[in-house]
Write a structure and sequence with these properties.
Layout lengths: L5 E7 L7 H13 L9 E11 L13 E9 L2 E8 L4 E15 L13 E8 L5 E7 L4 H18 L2 H5 L1
Antiparallel strand pairs: 1-2, 2-3, 3-4, 4-5, 5-6, 6-7
Length: about 170
């Protein structure tokens, strides 16, 4: 069985702890796509750090050496800001009512490459087709809490209005 190629850690953030460049990039993205006040009603904010494990003579092989992903989960939106190897930020968003989520550990891929995180499937704001993304999470309290919160938020967003009012 192949092991994960990354050490992963997750920590919860207060809004003020999100780096200024991430907040500015997220706000620019929101304006560009005319998304309105999608940062309202936050459920949880995290930063997930993935660092490549060096293996062998030449290091860790393919893939980025470091991924820092800031995630803002609201009652209606999932907003992701990826910073790969300290290069440009990549912002993505999905409406929770348009996604399905699955703990990676419960997926068919886990047997081939053990890892920790969430598989998120659905439509990105700036895409015409549905897609998938892996949200890496540490095996830690913040990672475990985020898994529960994103599942609950997605289920609630997909509930019929009548059921949500009960």
């Amino acid at each position: 069985m192949k092991l994960s190629e990354y050490n992963r850690s997750t920590r919860e953030l207060a809004f003020g702890e999100i780096s200024a460049n991430v907040i500015q990039s997220v706000r620019t993205y929101i304006e560009k796509h005319s998304l309105g006040d999608i940062l309202a009603n936050p459920v949880m904010r995290i930063v997930s750090t993935s660092e490549k494990i060096k293996k062998g003579l030449f290091g860790g092989g393919l893939g980025p050496k470091q991924l820092i992903q800031t995630v803002i989960l609201t009652d209606r939106w999932l907003i992701l800001a990826d910073n790969v190897d300290q290069n440009a930020l990549y912002i993505k968003s999905m409406q929770l009512r348009e996604i399905t989520v699955e703990a990676y550990e419960k997926s068919q891929f886990y047997k081939m490459v053990p890892d920790t995180g969430m598989n998120v499937n659905g439509k990105f704001t700036d895409a015409s087709e549905a897609g998938s993304i892996f949200v890496p999470l540490g095996k830690d309290e913040a990672g475990d809490t985020f898994k529960v919160r994103i599942i609950e938020a997605a289920q609630k967003a997909n509930m019929p209005i009548e059921a949500a009012l009960e």
